[in-house]
Amino acid sequence: MSRALRGAVAMAFLAALLAVPFTSASAADLRIVNGGFDEGLAGWSGSHSPGGVGVVVWDGRTTARVADTDPGAAYGRESMPGLPATAGTRYTLHAEVWADSGTAHLYLRFRDASGRLLGGGANASVTGRRWNRVTASGVAPTGTATVSALIYSGVADVGTAYWDEVLITRDLTDLGVQIESSVPNATTFSGGSAYALYTGTADANPQLAVIDVAGEEVTRKITIPDTAVTPTVGGWAAATATDGSVYLGTYPNSKLYRYVPGQSTVTDLGRAEGGYSFIWDLEPGAGGKVYGGTYNDGRYFKYDNGAFTTIGNVPIAAGAQYVRSLAHDPDANATYLGTGTNAALTRFDNVTGRVDSLLPAAYAHNSMVGGLTWTGNRLFAWIDRTLLVLRVVRNADGSHAAVTDAAITDVDLHHSPARDGKVWFVKEGLLHSYDVGTGSVRATSVRPGLDVTGYTWADGTLVGLGAASDGTRIFKYDPVSGNWSSRVVSGAPVLPAAINALGAGPDGDIYTGGYLTGGIGVHDPLRGDGDDGRPDTPTLNGLSQTDSLLAHNGLLYLGVYPSAKLYSHNPAGSWPPTLRYTGGEAGDKANDCEPGKGPPPQDRPYALAGGPDGTVYMGTVPKYGKRSGALTVWKEGTAGRTLCVVPNQSVVSLAYAGGKLFGGTSTRGALGVDPVYAPGASATLFSFDPTTGAVHPHPLPLTAPKAVTALAEVDGELWGLAGGSLFTLDPARPAAITARRLFPDPDYAGKPSLAWRDGVLLTVTQDPLHVYGTMGDQIFKINKSTKVLTVLLTIPGMEGLTADGLGNLYYKINERLYRLAVPQE
């Protein structure tokens, strides 16, 4: 049997009362046994006149045929035994039916624990010699224990109908975890073992895995503890101290944990600084000390003998929010600090407190020094995929400076400790070496196939551990023989990933993108399994954090962070998707859309829209430390281009209407800009003419809005959300904007992320009278004619909104996906 015809729009609905309250979300989908009749009539009992129902192939599909030739008899089959149901809960039944003659009926049937029918249940009827989708919705009466579906031809009816894809849902369903991750964020080594830190979510604590390097298997998994006041979600920092203890730095509570190899628990050492934040890197010092760096106050700290000490100024470098990377020279007792958001490289003398700036001037326009290693008497500094090899020299006045020995481009973040005068790293997917003495770079033919999070040496063999599309991998390379291996680590932790983006695909599935650890989840609407603690389908790996999703011209487009990458995927084809454009390679790092200059490189693609000619438009937030987002225009067969549209503002919403693209801006720039919001600026609406390339601003009749976070085309009009206000306009007359207040403005000061992606507006074919949306913790609908708002659901922590082909709404809370079945009027 083929899958149900996605996007079918002709159907009949039974009116339902919105006054019935939604129940608490129940876990996992309800599944009618053999709802597609692939197994004949198994699971369907005869409850009316014998005969009249059989399974046949109709229009290329396996269907149940109800053939009624007797006006004095009723024919039907009911899905029995029924599914568990709760009194007071609304249930909605969907089916596809071809009424070749006469009228076809679909009923919800509610029964008590003894099987007694509690009334006739809600029903819907349809006629028509084509496939129609019919829906019946009703509230389970008092005493209900089960719910079932009845396909039916009643007394006085005569006709033949073909039924397929009978599906059911509660009013509110917890669909559970959608994405899993089995890759480490940070790795350190000690005594023949790797210690890898795996990120969790707000509801699932991270884990430390102890991995036997020789055996390539996990020997112990330890959950990182936390408290409700200071939750631990994940971590990016791990280091081995000189006494053999393993230290872990976490977020969002900037806690430090210690693990003593061989023990079964980790010790919570407390917070490295006062605010919720990140420990981004850790480095061992002499005598068991550990040094660390934090975000967002740019703090450099030391942990020694049970106490935290802030070293130097806060921030350690002027204007720094991040101490992103550390390297320690034990002989000189000096620490090198890579900071951002405006890149700086600092040498801090831990004896005298002297601070020297070492960053070469050519890299001053970068945002971050992302990785540092002191090895082979050289400082290796990773800046935006360029690996600098620096010789640190002492001047006559006691200051220090850096001499650049090499600048190696397109290099992955991590590199090995020096051995036999060489440092190893991955460049353009291949393992390379750098000879410290000669400055030469040599490529091997070895392709490790993983994103290495840490290197070590074991008996002359280079070992790297990290993330791959199939989980955690361990890579080994013998420089003498050239022999190498790359294998999946057995028993690595598998943890849920928080959902960052969600959208409906061209195949009708609901796609979700993972936060931080990446990955894509796929949910087949109303066909999920019964295990809501694991995804219904294996996670599609290989992409980093997805920020936006768009179904357009039969393809799924994905906007992926970092570097604002645009991918396309054909659901009928193979994974991974095809990279189409990289906004991080556009523009110039020295520019920020100043007059006559182009955009800076872009980073966060929060908005996607499609044009009728196949063009895909992407709205973005720039790289760290920049204010000006941009509009990317890409079409198959073109190179694509990225344009400044509103200087000093990000582009966070897009919609195509009336032959033009409209975009909404946010006055918030990238992370690291100070102040957070562009001073004196008001978010605005702009239009882009695909024919001429002209950009026109359309100021909103609102007082200093912070952001326009949602745009949608609604019956030829443009609708948008700016803070708590709704605005509408005719694309042919964009100056005539009508606005009205719906809600109080969000708390943009307390939660700046709302100024990037708070609101959503969308329409569903099944309900031509309303526009659906979300803002803050509420899902609502707005009458198209009267603009009257009805709040459907209020749940703390709820974010995002999309709809399936049946008209159901989907949202997320942390790692879990939820479905809201809204009765149609």
Automatic annotation (TrEMBL):
What ranges does the record list as Basic and acidic residues composition bias? 586-595
Alphabetized UniProt keyword annotations: Signal
| UniProt xrefs under InterPro entries | Galactose-bd-like_sf, WD40/YVTN_repeat-like_dom_sf
Gene3D superfamilies recorded for this chain? Galactose-binding domain-like, YVTN repeat-like/Quinoprotein amine dehydrogenase
Enumerate the residue ranges of region (Disordered). 578-603
| Record keyword Signal present | yes
For this UniProt entry, which residues form the secretion signal?
1-27
Query: What protein does this entry describe?
Result: CBM-cenC domain-containing protein
Native organism is: Streptosporangium amethystogenes subsp. fukuiense
